[in-house]
Amino acid sequence: MKFKKKTAMLVSFTLGTLLVASTALADIANKSGYDQLKDALKVTAEQSSEKFDSFTLDFSMAMKDNGKTLMTSNEVAKHDRSKGASETISSGESLNGNKNNSNYYSDKKTMIRVSESDPTYYVTEFTKERTEDPFDNPFKEDGADDIEKIADAIVGSLKDHVVVTENSDGSLGFAGSLTEVQIPSLVNAVASYSLKQEFNGNQDNMPHLTKDVFVKEVKGTAKVNKDGVMENILGTAVLSGKDKQGTVHEVTIEVLAKLSGINSTTVTKPDLTGKKVIKNIAKNENSGPEISNPEKFVGKFSNDILLEKDNKFVKAGERIIEITQIDNKTVVGRYYEEYKPGFEEYATTQRNFEIDAKMSDKENSSGYDYTTKSGSKGDLFIDEHSAKIYVNGITQSMSGLIFNSEFSPDVE
């Protein structure tokens, strides 16, 4: 699923809150329910990344404001560790009302993506077989131990508000809820600050919460099978706050995650017969694809030279890259700057140099390295799908100018 950064942060916060809510009251086998739940999450992540041959993860989320749906998202990810392959089907509606339906496939030699808005199949083939596992264990990421300690500290007495049930088949059921009066003031103080940052009015259709912001209710259920693997977890958080007009908003976030198809999931590579296909070649996943038709980048690319004047942004001129020759090994051209009348003072250090760049031989780079006659070094990155050129190594020629490394084509 592809959320905007702010939305992703909100989801992370909500999931953290739901984890707090999913702590346990019972002490089974000398372990609290909280510890049992945490163990189950760790066991599930470890076995998914190291033991299971294949499995399916299904994650759904919905956000509502006073009962009105703001956004929905669903992602079904199939993983086949034995083949190093994965397949993800995503669907939903974003905050701005756009439909987000896409498919993504990956194996050791290939990546394929397609979306409903663009039926073209974008295929990247790798010259070197990749060794990355299709599923990474989040508990082994850098900083995971510190996050766990913070969660343990925050949980505190909240462990006493969730019931753990031991079923006859050896599985465990977790269920519980917290209301605003049961949530510690420290947690709600942190929540209030965080939620004001997320609901700040900068995203379309999102309420702008400015005061009286708190977590009103959190509830959830989970099931852990007899082998200690988490099969599903369902959680709901209700967040309350007022906007500038004093209108009360109750934002409900519902999250459901399910694990199924253990050692029986099948990942299928898309059939490209009769489909519109754009194919690229890349060294590895980090290096990016080669350009399928470099010649279309011959021409002029530019961006505006901006500065702040009288409390607003004004255009002082243009930065220009003119490509005269390009293939998947070299880029030849020129970089120069042009300033508008009235901005001559900024043109005293304007730059004008030839570009003769070579494809980088660095393992994790798909850029073209260049060195100017004055000895300055930089690199260019060509993005075929966005039709843009990104340049690193060119700094501002004078204080006050705003530098933009993204160059767009000059077209009629």
UniProtKB/TrEMBL annotation:
Signal sequence residues: 1-26
Keywords, in A-Z order: Signal
Region (Disordered), start-end ranges: 73-102
Entry keyword annotation includes Signal: yes
Biased amino acid composition, Low complexity: 90-102
Name this protein carries in UniProt: Uncharacterized protein
Lineage: Bacteria, Bacillati, Bacillota, Clostridia, Eubacteriales
